[in-house]
Amino acid sequence: MPVDRIHQILTAELADLSASGSLKGAEKVVSAVLPAAADRGPRLRLEGSGDKEFLRMNSNNYLGMSLRREVIEAEEAASREFGAGPGAVRFISGTYTPHVELERRLAEFHGREAGMIFSSAYATTLGVMTPLISKDTAVVSDDLNHNCIINAIRLSRPGSKRIYKHLELEKLDQALEEVSEECRRAIVVTDGIFSMRGDHAPLPEILEIVRKYDGAFEENALLMVDDSHGVGAFGATGRGTEEHTGADPCDVLVATLGKALGVNGGYVVASREIIDYLREKAPLYIYSNPITPAEAAAALAALELLDSDIGRGLLDHLRAMTARFEQGLGRLGLETIPGEHPVVPLMVRDTERTSALVKHLFEHGILATGLNFPVVPKGDEEIRFQISADHTEADIDQVLAALEAFPR
Questions:
Q1: What is the CATH number that goes with domain 25-56+309-405?
Q2: Order of strands, edge to edge, in the sheet holding 369-371?
Q3: Of 167, 209, 215, 355, which one is least surrounded by beta carbons within 10 A?
Q4: Is 360 an annotated catalytic residue?
Q5: How many whole angstroms separate alpha carbon 54 and alpha carbon 318?
Q6: Catalytic residue among 120, 180, 195, 228
Q7: Strands 137-142 and 185-191, how do they pair?
Q8: Confidence of residue 159 (pLDDT cuts 50, 70, 90)
C-alpha cells in the first residue's frame, strides 16, 4: 500500500522542527566507555570520532553507579540466576525475588509503607496519575513540571485543571481555593528538582498549603512529588528534596532507578492502601513488563551503596564538584542559577551563541546539552551541565578552561 502522502506530511513536519531549532537529529553513538585513570574520570568514544575521548557533562548518572563494580556484578549474578528477561507482565508470571526485595527496600529507604516498580519513571508518573485522577478530581501543577506530568494530566482528563506559574505559591493557594468549589478530590503535583534549571520545590510550604485545603475536599487533597532528579543526588543521605528541605513525607513520591542509581526503571512509594490500589488499576504496571530481575538486583545493590558510608562519601564529593564548577563559572563572569543540585545551567540567553558554545565544547572533547527556544522560552537559552561523583577536580577544571577559551 502506498504511503507517499503521509510521508510528505511527516517530512514537512520534520522540516518545521529543523527550522525552529527543536529537531533533535541523529543521536551520538557511544562506541566505548574508558574507565577512570589517574586524576581523571571515565571517558567515552563516539562512532565517527576515531580515538578522540570525550568527558561527559550531560548524564543523569549523578553518583557514577552505572560503572561501579558492585552494581555490575549484582546484575551479572542475577542474570545467571534468573535469565535475561522477566518473561511476562507481573500478574501473569513476571515477578521475581529481586523485584519484591527492591520494592520493600525502596519503601524502607523513603520511610513509606509500600512501594512498586515500573519500567521507567515516565511510565510511573503516567501509571500513578491516571488511576488516581477521576472526573471529580482537580489537578494543580507547576508550569515547569516535566513532560511526563503534563502528558499524564492530558491523558487523565481531570474534572478541573490549574497550572500555576513556577514556584509562585500564592497562585497555588488561589488555585486550590477555586477548585474546592468544583471537585471532590484534589491532587497537587510538582517536580522535586526541576530538571532544566536545577532548582527545587519548597516542599514544606507546598505541603502546608495542600493541608490547608484538605478539609475542603470530600476525598482529600493529595501532594504528589516526582523527585527523579532529586533522589540519590540531593539531601544529606540522598533521600532527595524532602530531605533537603526538611519536609514531611508527601502523599505520593515518584522517583527513578535510572539516574543517580545508575540502572533502569521507575518507582512509587506511598501508603499501603494507595499501592494496593495502583497494583490493581495502573495499566502501565499491569500490562507492561517490569524491569528485568537483573536490573532490579543491580538497582538494589546501588541503593545499598547509596545508603552506606560509601554513598555518603560519593554525595560529599558530588557536592564538592558541583560547588567547584559553580564557583568557577562565577570567576569567569558567567551566569548560572545557584543551587546545591548537580544540574548546573549556564544561562547563555541566545540561540546561536548556545549552539556555537556546544560545538566549541565538543571540539574540546566535552559533551554538553544546549537548550534553545522553543524547548525553553526565548531569552532562557542555556547549556545544562550535569556534575557526577565520578568527575574529578581535573575534569571540572578542563570544562572551565574550555569555557574560558570561548570568545566573548
A1: 3.90.1150.10
A2: 343-347, 382-386, 369-371
A3: 215
A4: no
A5: 20
A6: 195
A7: parallel
A8: very high
